[in-house]
Amino acid sequence: MTAAIYLVKGREKSLRRRHPWIFSRGIQKVEGKPGLGETVDIYAANGEWIARGAYSPNSQIRARVWTFKKKEQIDVDFFVSRLQDAKTLREILAQRDGLTGYRLIAAESDGLPGITIDKYDNYLVCQLLSAGADAQRDNLVAALNIVFPECHIYERSDVSVRKKEGLKERTGVLHGDTPPKSVVIEENGVKISVDIIGGHKTGFYLDQRDSREAAVKYVDGKRVLNCFCYTGGFGLYALKGNAAEVINVDVSQPALDTARHNAELNGFDTSKAEFLNADVFKLLREYRERGERFDVVIMDPPKFAESKAQLNGACRGYKDINMLAMQILKPGGTLLTYSCSGLMDGNLFQKIIADAALDAHRQVQFIERFEQAADHPIDSAYPEGFYLKGFACYVK
Ligand code: SAH
């Protein structure tokens, strides 16, 4: 018999709105002895069946909903159906934006809590973040084989959040061949080499695609500084947009080497590009003192806030780099700035930019807003899926 969770009275409300999380304090009793990630039936306090989900005994989020349909069992067919839904949307986007790489499954936002899958050409890269996701590995792989018979499958679950779920980090081939060092994808006419095994996350930051394309219209003939460039990203689009000069900065030498390779791969004029191994915080101060000035500064840092406790420190970090960026912009320059910290909402980020403007003694006007790319959709029942924000700022 399937184990069961009974909720505290009233705690079923968020589930009726199709939100997929059940917190430990919302649970009145657990029947049976569900193990790590085991499927459980979820009942309201009055005994009404509400949903079926995965049990996470070690996490504050004690269960995550797989389905709100009583007849739906959590088996290969279930995963096939979810994957097919997700594939349908992605095929529309792939056609629209010329993509051979995209996020296929954005976890909760695609009805598969704890599961992220990115598709790079014929390689599917899975990240399983929750106990439920981990327990369903075999069903998921079987379903992927049915929906994408041509694809190889690799796991990159080397992420520390798995600890909260009582899981160890894990990587390796799940089906087919080991990914080569370089899998080339294309987006918006730009080619990008992705290192699935050695790169950050699953290999590439697909979520910034729309912002990268939007950057093209700000760079024609301009001197561009691309901070936190990773494997080229915005810098490649700046070259596509006919920038006069692009300085790409990162602390990762392998990322910088790939960035240069990517510029060559696209046949861009690499004499216009520099690939600098430096700490952005230090470099911007040096530029400010030396009087180096730019027309466009791109500021796409890693996530500064992993938890609520880190949010204040993160705010200081964002304010500092954005202030520095404004100070090295020529009058009338453009700052393209982003935050991928989900804990920081758009209003707070806008306020930080406002504070940075005061400290930089510059007047700033917001002229465009950005969000995560469309293959990272936000489900209406799960607003937490919105995490990436950005602004184009006109800096006087
Ligand atoms: N803009 C990129 C993604 C950036 S990810 C794109 O479009 O693909 C963040 C990058 O910041 C990583 O490559 C990481 O190596 C780099 N990084 C982290 N701290 C840094 C620092 N202090 N100075 C420079 N780069 C840093």
Specify the overall morphology: globular
Structural class designation: alpha/beta
The quaternary structure here is single chain
Strand content: 25-35%
**Which ions and ligands are bound to the chains?**
S-adenosyl-L-homocysteine
Radius of gyration: 22 Å
Task: Tell me what you see in this structure.
Helix content is 28%, strand content 30%. By secondary structure, it is α/β, with parallel strands linked by helices. Helix 7 links the parallel strand 15 and strand 16. Helix 2 crosses helix 4, helix 8 runs parallel beside helix 9 and helix 9 crosses helix 10. The protein is globular. Bound molecules: S-adenosyl-L-homocysteine. S-adenosyl-L-homocysteine binds next to strand 15 and helix 8.
How would you concisely characterize the structure shown here?
This protein is of the alpha/beta class and 396 residues long.
Chart the SSEs and their pairings.
Blueprint: E1 3-7, H1 13-16, E2 21-23, E3 27-31, E4 39-43, E5 49-55, E6 61-67, H2 76-97, E7 101-106, E8 115-120, E9 123-128, H3 131-135, H4 137-147, E10 152-157, E11 170-175, E12 183-187, E13 190-194, H5 209-215, E14 223-227, H6 234-240, E15 245-250, H7 253-265, E16 273-277, H8 280-290, E17 294-299, H9 311-327, E18 329-339, H10 346-360, E19 364-371, E20 389-395
Parallel strand pairs: 1-4, 9-10, 14-15, 14-17, 15-16, 17-18
Antiparallel strand pairs: 1-3, 2-6, 4-5, 5-6, 7-8, 8-9, 10-11, 12-13, 18-20, 19-20
Bound molecules: S-adenosyl-L-homocysteine.
